[in-house]
Amino acid sequence: MRKSSAMVPYLIWMALFIVIPLLLVVYYAFTVTTPEGTTWSFENFTRFFEPIYLRVLWRSLALALISTLICLLLGYPVAMIMAGNAFSRKNVIMLLFVVPMWMNFLLRTYAWLAILERNGFLNVLLSSLSLPRLNILYTNAAVILGMVYNFLPFMVLPIYSVLSKIDKGVVEAAGDLGANSVKVFTRVIFPLSLPGVVSGITMVFMPALTTFVISRLLGGGQFTLIGNLIEQQFLVVGDWGFGSAISMVMIILILLSMAIMSFFEDEDKEATLW
Amino acid sequence: MVKFLQRCYVYLIFVFLYMPIAVLMVYSFNDSRSRGTWGGFTLRWYVELFQDRTIMTSLYYTLLIGVSASLIATIIGTVAALGIHNSRGWKKKLVMNVTYIPVLNPDIVTAISLMILFVFARVRLGFVTLLLAHITFNIPYVILSVLPKLRQLNKHLYEAALDLGATPGQAFWKVIIPEIMPGIVTGMLLAFTLSIDDFVVSFFTTGSGVSTLSITAYSMARRGINPKINALSTIMFVFVLVLLVIVNIRQEREHKKGRGGKNGSKRQDRGYSSEFGDSQFGSEWV
Question: Do A119 and B36 touch (CB under 8 A)?
Answer without folding.
Answer: yes
